[in-house]
Amino acid sequence: MSTEPDARLRVILLDSNGYASYHDPRGASILSADRYCVLLVTDTAKASQATGAGLEAVVGIRGDDQARAGAVRFLYSLGGSDAIRLATVSERLLLPAARIREELGIPGPTVAETLPFRDKILMKQRLQAAGIRVPEFAEFSEESARRLARSYRAVVVKPRLGTGAEDIFVLRGAAALDAFLASRSARAPALEAEEHVSGPVCHVDSVVREGNVVAATAGRYLDDTTAYKSLAPCRDVAVPDGALLDELLDFNQRVIACYPRFTGVTHHEMFLTDDGPCFCEIAARAGGGGVAAGFWSRTGTSLHQLVLQAQALEPVPRDIKVASHLTGWVMIYAGRGVLRAPVQPPDAPWVIEARITARPGDRLRGPRSCGEGVALVSVSGADEAEVTSRLATVVEQCAPDVSPEE
Fold it and tell me: Strand pairing partners for 191?
């Protein structure tokens, strides 16, 4: 038996996706056993996924912040030291992780550093002060919402700390605003109100070192991110080289520069208007949908791995090359009922990754956010037309067969 000290970095991992998800599209673990010693906090329903050589301990919880913090305290007490780090790839857990770090004295992103990537008002205040174009916005109140409604044809209301395009309301006209105000509970989460900006939504996904972009890819949503509400597919295609890509990357760097101490991964969404890009929001995580698979296809780099590395205070690469081919992805949704047949993506070399989350016989509840699809399929292609055509093939072949609930 070796008596040499373990040189691996010990990382407490806050998980919401299941340990099986920490792999790149080839199936290789992004938490290699020779580099990391993982102490996992996960949902009890997903604890069975926790297998692998790099795992030192697993604690299953019911999912609330209090239980999660208690699990971290327990794992930290097993041998807490400066060598321990705390990390998560989940946007919902970024703030809880920051609070626990501060409580236990674990190095890594603080609450003050995390909030401007989570609170939609704080992030817009920071960028507006730096001269970045943002929608007119305000902390939600009846007065602020009515003031915005008098100036704009529609007002958007969303949770300040929201994720996954959940609980977003587009209120057109006084009657819609009145109905929203009448239905809002006093216990509802803190909200933001902002002008509705017309135009396509694009995103730039970046690897960042101290406020400078190392590498980035851009994408354009072909469908609204709230398409899940109507069960329509949500498609996204990469932006090719050209004037639009240059404009998006320039705007992205200007926004990233407003976070000069930040190192890690960002997912930055923006509206594309006739007057150029207008900020929507930014997150200190990998983009959802097939963003990570597309980035891996074009760079050979795992965004989720770099998220964890940065939070563990390990360096991120100084140079990443982006290949010229394009990628795209589609999320397939299904309504309430029982799935009667397999959702089967094309068996083709241009399918980068396919995640099927429902099997025949499963009783489906219907999606409550943009990430709750029955299938997520990412594809590659030489240009936009080829990628879009392949996404259409996926949509046709993956149409779910669901029997309505009785």
Answer: 159
Q: Is 265 exposed, middle or buried (0-12, 13-18, 19+ CB in 10 A)?
A: buried
Q: In the predicted model, is pLDDT for residue 186 greater than 70? A: no
Structure tokens at 291: 């963003």
**231 contacts 286 by C-beta, under 8 angstroms:** no
d(CA 194, CA 172): 12
Sequence-distant (6+) residues with CB within 8 A of 311 are 85, 86, 87, 88, 97, 108, 109, 264
Q: How far apart are CA 205 and CA 269, in angstroms?
A: 9
Question: Which CATH entry fits the domain spanning 201-403: 3.40.47.10, 1.10.3720.10, 3.30.470.20, 2.130.10.10?
Answer: 3.30.470.20
In whole angstroms, what separates CA 125 from the centre of its chain?
22
Query: Where exactly are the structural domains of the chain?
Result: 9-108, 136-195, 201-403
Integer Cα distance of 373 and 225 in angstroms:
12
Nearest to 37 by CA among 57, 59, 17, 22: 57
Question: What does DSSP assign to residue 367?
Answer: -
Name 29's bridge partners. Answer: 23
CA distance 333 to 341: 14
Contact 387, 325 (CB under 8 A): no
Coil, helix or strand at residue 39: strand
pTM recorded for the entire structure: 0.93
Report the distance separating Cα 367 and Cα 335, nearest Å.
Answer: 7
* Of residues 187 and 273, more confidently modeled: 273
- Rounded CA-CA distance 380/394 in Å is 12
